[in-house]
Amino acid sequence: MKVSIIGATGYSGMELIRYLHNHSFVEIVSIHSQTETQEIDQVYPYLKHLLSLPLEPIDAEKIMERSELVFLALPSGISKEVAVPFVKNSFPVIDLSGDFRLQEEGLYEKWYDKDASHFPLIQGFDYGLAEYREDLSRPFIANPGCYATAAELSFAPLLQNQLLDKQSIIIDGKSGLSGAGKGLSQASHFTEANDNMSVYKMNTHQHIPEIIQQFRRWEPDLDSIQFTTSLIPVTRGIFMTAYGRLNDDRSIEQLIDLYRTTFDGKPFIRIQENGCYPTLKQIVGTNFCDIGIGLNEETNIVTLVTVIDNLGKGAAGQAIQNLNLFAGFPETEGLLQIPIYP
Amino acid sequence: MKVSIIGATGYSGMELIRYLHNHSFVEIVSIHSQTETQEIDQVYPYLKHLLSLPLEPIDAEKIMERSELVFLALPSGISKEVAVPFVKNSFPVIDLSGDFRLQEEGLYEKWYDKDASHFPLIQGFDYGLAEYREDLSRPFIANPGCYATAAELSFAPLLQNQLLDKQSIIIDGKSGLSGAGKGLSQASHFTEANDNMSVYKMNTHQHIPEIIQQFRRWEPDLDSIQFTTSLIPVTRGIFMTAYGRLNDDRSIEQLIDLYRTTFDGKPFIRIQENGCYPTLKQIVGTNFCDIGIGLNEETNIVTLVTVIDNLGKGAAGQAIQNLNLFAGFPETEGLLQIPIYP
Amino acid sequence: MKVSIIGATGYSGMELIRYLHNHSFVEIVSIHSQTETQEIDQVYPYLKHLLSLPLEPIDAEKIMERSELVFLALPSGISKEVAVPFVKNSFPVIDLSGDFRLQEEGLYEKWYDKDASHFPLIQGFDYGLAEYREDLSRPFIANPGCYATAAELSFAPLLQNQLLDKQSIIIDGKSGLSGAGKGLSQASHFTEANDNMSVYKMNTHQHIPEIIQQFRRWEPDLDSIQFTTSLIPVTRGIFMTAYGRLNDDRSIEQLIDLYRTTFDGKPFIRIQENGCYPTLKQIVGTNFCDIGIGLNEETNIVTLVTVIDNLGKGAAGQAIQNLNLFAGFPETEGLLQIPIYP
Amino acid sequence: MKVSIIGATGYSGMELIRYLHNHSFVEIVSIHSQTETQEIDQVYPYLKHLLSLPLEPIDAEKIMERSELVFLALPSGISKEVAVPFVKNSFPVIDLSGDFRLQEEGLYEKWYDKDASHFPLIQGFDYGLAEYREDLSRPFIANPGCYATAAELSFAPLLQNQLLDKQSIIIDGKSGLSGAGKGLSQASHFTEANDNMSVYKMNTHQHIPEIIQQFRRWEPDLDSIQFTTSLIPVTRGIFMTAYGRLNDDRSIEQLIDLYRTTFDGKPFIRIQENGCYPTLKQIVGTNFCDIGIGLNEETNIVTLVTVIDNLGKGAAGQAIQNLNLFAGFPETEGLLQIPIYP
To answer: Which of D11, D14, D185, D191 best probes binding to A when mutated, by most A CB atoms within 10 angstroms?
Structure first.
């Protein structure tokens, strides 16, 4: 299968290239950038002797001639423009931005503070939470956000089974600095970020409506969540602790069983043993989502400790998982490299 | 005033020395170690040309002869032995360990998994949450734990005024590696801790009963809290996000007012502006406790973002604040150095 | 080809497993540890769903029955014992320790401060600097040290062509903390290593005689070098700046040409463009050795900036490169994964 | 003594404020910024409850009325303009930029690639290497660069005594990211700098002529040095390894004696014991310059390991030391705080 990547020089684009380099059934036929026109290994010298491909301007016509699917690894607000000719021609698109995720009119404008794409276009997209997709044949996939992926997979078993007090969900997310992308900012200046931790976008993060939208598919009465996002001084990874109150008594063993059963056959979800919690590093560089479960039996509060790589399961990894599901490849193809440790 | 420090070579002991070096009314007459017998600047070459004092063995008699107060900066389990002769002689003690904090029989054994000190001895100690001490003249002070200090100051205004749903408190604490002390461990090995984050002692941390004990002084019906502790790859500091549900409607402005009023005249508590949250680095090296307050008006959940230096307000800084209160010195004496930035 | 790994749970052992997981012609039939007996993915949870193999005790007989080659990823001093039965049976060994590198009697004892292996045994080993091996069929390979690899590849073109003042070589090496292995120490305690840099083993590092031994193969009159080793707060990688004085005038263009010519056809050596120097991160997770060359035309001093991954080209990567050369596989097999970035 | 600080919000300006806060004989009467007009504790919330001063525009007349000396903590190229009215009025100036350091016409233009100040103005400035100043009464002081300070103090005893081969000096400097200031750049983006190390300005760093200028005061025949600058992932500090060849035999003990004698009575120079080398952290936050000395007796090459805080002895600390010398205060006044550790 021949694919193209638009936005190849961003962190998610580079991660798509990294995973696809190991994919047996996919060939990257072209990579595209809005700004760069060199060979990719001149922009990124670490690729020398590994991969050389020219960065090309974005020309939808040419891409559709040569390729069978396009990844859009672009910032929110830009994807919605670039996607149009592909969608109009029914050409398969996996979009990594937030532009096509919110399936209720007006939500995008409110949370992203930008004009939305034409709403019927948005409706054509399938929300690509890979473990929960229904119609794998749909050619337009809105790949989920990083925090959203972690939050949704964390709570899925509880919400699908109506086990939670609907008012009780609190999500405390921490992200490495690559989550903020390549753009320079005061918060990502080394002297500011090193040895520091800070909260940002308290209760205003654009992944909140995306999470609630998915939660409501499982628990339609759910209205709101408490969602905190913060920066930790690591390059990659999301470390999420999340809380919810059970609406009746259950043992920790029953809970872990429920999670194992729910994710049985899902190769990228790894439920930790009772008493064990994942560390951030154990998933960096991978498409895994590792979930540890705790229960405070005095309060009936469940604590979920969930880790994903924001550029893996939180972006490029899940995008390739979605490609595999769409194209009928094995779900794990290209995604089972052993990561670098330590 | 002449003071001695036992356990001077640990991180808290060194921090006592650092602050007292700037104190106008206190002289360190002796420092003591269980293991070292050199000059302090041979153990710590960074002190050369700044401070030279011999490390002496622990001899309570001699200390009581030369000194007027002793700091115990020792691990829990050891303090309780070393403290005995001082207490028996009514010699003032400020203890930085957990050995004299829990004022209910049996609690220490349960949470510390060690034999407790003789209970009447424990009862002689005053819990030294500096902003909430009642009888400043008591000569035996149990200096609070680092997480406990942050948690108690965070919730004090809400609990004192019975504003919270008593079941709703969730505390998500993150600590730098110095919180684990100088002892080597796998979790504090650089290659493991760098670029990593991990949860430890989920719902079993020994500061839990200490927090609940203090919370009950304000809200006697409170039974339990949810308390998560984790390690972030920084050397110093506690970054705490904490959650609770208001039991009636209140605006964010009212909340911030409440916090400002509560801590009016408290020099080390800095309430952030509406919409602002503290960063970890802004308190490293200081005795400040900075609190940012958020309110999710849809859910009535308050989010508290609180930062302290685990070795400052969380240990040595507060110990000196307690000394100042006990001795009648200005509360801030020795504690208002400008910290290093960036 | 079937291989076994002894010392699989150390950092180099784990890195062998990582690379071989991607190798088309090699199967790991067994992994062995002196201390662990679990499945490897129980020791290292990050391997769950990726690799499960039992850790077995070290039994040379059984290994020789099932396998065709053994990697020894053991500390210096232990390898020399474990290697004996394999060598005696002419069973192929690639040893990653320092035990079989020094081909002059007495050197090992002096620099490692331990008893050496039986000297004829040492003589049976070929020094495995992959780009400079002569007889690829030799079955006993002493894989070079990490600093040594970087130093030797840096100076090879200059020394092979007798271009340097023999007294002028100064090597200033910096290593990430993984170079010190999994063993706990004060220097690798996070609170000590973070935000710090320190020198260790000044002019006494055990790689010095190994470097001189190889340098003398190119420049027999060379007697000594200046060699500084230091720790930088990164997990992986060696960053080496090295200096030597040219013995006659040459332009920077000529020098770069010389390096390009020398390493023509060597897939893992990447000579940087004029004016460009490699960054450490560009080789982390790879088997590359990237070299940047500067020339101070006023002093005729050449500056070489060389980076390798201490666990890649400095250990496991080069070991697999040596396996490929020995077995007649393509030199790059298993070694051309795109690394994680950023 | 009343002083003003221009450029107060930069890293060096903030460090001046930090040190002067502890100075018994100096009062900061005004602080000035080109861009900010708030209170300093609104720009830097970490200063709340510690220091509140309004940031004022730069008005030389008003400063000269209220103040007795001005610090210029401005970027090179801007200082030279701002300094003019003060110099013209013989008002004391301590300038932390590079604008007034190079006392040979044409050098500044070449190395800074900018127009120089009027040369007679430059000649009015005294180079402020505090341990080597001759006429302390001169009112215009060009405070040395950070790398320059470390390099000059490292080699002073050897050059003053003509002990070195003049062609042999190699300086390998590493700097923390604060050396690059508050300005955002790709190299100081957290995701790039973290876990990385890189070389910059190889043999073109603007401190080179400054170093040579000072070296020639001790050793007039010296022509050139080899000077490498690199970035290490720490916030603060310069770690320098430097090399030179002795021109006759000397023991390490003799060398250490020479250093101790040379710096006898210099409170901020700490010569390490034989076999000991300083770590970076031991000087962070201080005005110390710690020097460790090694000798390779085979090659007669001396290795100097020197650490300073780039914002302390490398900028603001030395500026205050120069103020103390100029004003006749004790040399160490305000500079002997115990730094934060760990």
So the answer is: D191
Catalytic residues of D: 146
| Bridging pattern class, strands D238-245 and D301-308 | antiparallel
Contact C195 D292 (CB under 8 A): no
CATH number, domain A2-144+313-327, options 3.30.429.10, 3.90.1170.40, 2.60.130.10, 3.40.50.720: 3.40.50.720
Min Cα–Cα distance to chain A from C338, Å: 6
Q: Within an 8 Å CB–CB cutoff, is residue C35 touching chain B? A: no
The D residues from 6 to 25 touching B (CB cutoff 8 Å) are 11, 14, 17-18, 21-22
Q: What is the pLDDT of residues A183-241, one digit of tens each?
A: 999 999 999 999 999 999 998 999 999 999 999 999 999 989 999 999 999 999 999 99
- For residue B226, which of A170, A274, A199 has the smallest C-alpha distance? A170
SS3 sequence, chain C?
A: CEEEEECCCCHHHHHHHHHHCCCCCCEEEEEECCCCCCEHHHHCHHHCCCCCCEEECCCHHHHHHHCCEEEECCCCCCHHHHCHHHHHCCCCEEECCCCCCCCCCCHHHHHHCCCCCCHHHHHCCEECCHHHCCCCCCCEEECCCHHHHHHHHHHHHHHHCCCECCCCCEEEEEECHHHHCCCCCHHHEHHHHCCCCEEECCCCCCHHHHHHHHHHHHCCCCCCCEEEEEECCCCCCEEEEEEEEECCCCCHHHHHHHHHHHCCCCCCEEECCCCCCCCHHHHCCCCCEEEEEEEECCCCEEEEEEEECCCHHHHHHHHHHHHHHHHCCCCCCCCCCCCCCC
- Decide if A317 contacts A237 (C-beta within 8 A): no
Chain D residues near residue C297 by CB distance under 8 angstroms: none
Residues of B with catalytic function: 146
C341 CB neighbours in chain A (<8 A) are 14, 18, 44, 46
The class of domain B2-124 in CATH terms is alpha beta
Which residues 292-311 of B are in CB contact (within 8 Å) with C?
Answer: none
Instruction: Return the closest-CA partner of residue D319 out of D19, D94, D113.
Output: D94
Quote the pTM value: 0.97
Q: Which residue of chain C has the CA closest to A281?
A: C46
Omega into B144 within 30° of 0, i.e. cis?
Answer: no
- What the block records as the tokens of B130 is 């500096």
| Complex ipTM over 0.85 | yes
Q: How many CA atoms lie within 13 A of C109 on its CB side?
A: 8
C182/B190 touch (CB, cutoff 8 Å), yes or no? no
Please tell me which residue of chain D has the smallest CA distance to B267.
Answer: D49
The domain locations on chain A are 2-144+313-327, 147-310
Q: How many CB atoms lie within 10 A of CB D186?
A: 10
What are A190's two structure tokens?
């080394």
The set of chains that have 3 or more CB pairs under 8 A with B is A, C, D
B177 touches C at CB < 8 Å: yes
- Express each pLDDT in D144-201 by its tens digit: 999 999 999 999 999 999 999 999 999 999 999 999 889 999 999 999 999 999 999 9
Q: How far apart are the C-alpha atoms of A127 and A124, rounded to whole Å?
A: 10
Question: What is the sign, positive or negative, of the torsion defined by CA atoms of C30, C32, C37, C38?
Answer: negative
A46: contact with C, CB 8 A cutoff = yes
In angstroms, the CA B18 to CA D225 distance is 40
Name every residue whose Cβ is closer than 8 Å to that of residue A71 and which is 6 or more positions away in sequence: A3, A4, A5, A6, A7, A13, A16, A93, A94, A95, A96, A319, A323
Candidates 3.30.2140.20, 3.40.50.1820, 3.40.50.1970, 3.30.360.10; correct CATH number of C147-310?
3.30.360.10
